[in-house]
DNA sequence: CTGATTTCCTGGCGGC
DNA sequence: TGCCGCCAGGAAATCA
């Protein structure tokens, strides 16, 4: 479920806590997530300082001293839990109370200030990898990705080119990370609703104007979600923060049979399945 | 090449 | 109450 806005929010949550800090201890509680952890995972990370952090598509990247980058993907159920350092002994009264780690915690980083960052992922669709920082674009995970939807490479004309001659439903192509990254099942439905485009339209039949509206809608939808994520961050980070899921209100996603939210529409949100994925839309608003 | 389908994994929930 | 089956979904693999 983490799509670009959620991953961006997680990045903004962990970056100030991790940049400039050293990974004092790294614990891998199992050898694999969706795929095996890279060879020497613990040894290659332990003792390294985090010098920068960014996001590409739905991947978090922690750039480490020594020229390597830790790549983290949350899959659909992955979370990062920030756990503050325990208080100094002088302020500690009574017996310590052991608090269990979040369920399904697979990897734990302890920073040199005592903060712990827990990676928990029940469904284990997440992944971690380590790659040379100076050649990340060539890495398998990044080499075939399309443009960032919030960057300069994404626009109506770009979409028009990408859609040209394609007969697949436009919704399917929005989910294709080679076309544009970061859009998942939720924001694909939301963006198409905002643009007034039917999800089943063959992508190649979209006009230039359709593509302009869709590009703008994708951008606006993701921007709004990032803004919402930012306010969520302010609410709960600072204490113990659990990053990965957020409560958003969606206009069509998971609202089957609910009235369309567009003023004066009076239609009903429909749910259909496209290539085994639920799609939500309003047939009055989207043609 | 394109597009559709399957696979991975586990918690949660509907239905009986 | 209990259990079975299905659904959720990112991305890659596989199939037609």
Shape: globular
Kindly give the count of domains. 2
CATH superfamily of the largest domain: MutM-like, N-terminal
Integer average pLDDT? 88
Give the low-confidence spans: none
Describe this structure in words.
The chain is globular and about 65 Å long. α1 runs parallel beside α7 (208-236), α4 crosses α7 and α6 (185-195) packs across α7 (208-236). The protein has two domains: 4-143, MutM-like, N-terminal (N-terminal domain of MutM-like DNA repair proteins), CATH 3.20.190; 156-282, Helicase, Ruva Protein, domain 3, CATH 1.10.8.50. The chain has a five-stranded antiparallel beta sheet. It has a four-stranded antiparallel beta sheet with strand order 2-3-4-8. The chain contains seven helices and eleven strands. 27% of the residues lie in helices and 22% in strands. With 287 residues, it is α+β, with helices and mostly antiparallel strands. The longest helix is centred in the last third of the chain and has 29 residues, at 208-236. The chain has helices at residues 4-18, 41-45, 140-143, 156-163, 170-175, 185-195, 208-236, and strands at 23-28, 50-56, 59-64, 68-73, 79-83, 105-111, 116-120, 127-132, 241-243, 269-274, 277-282.
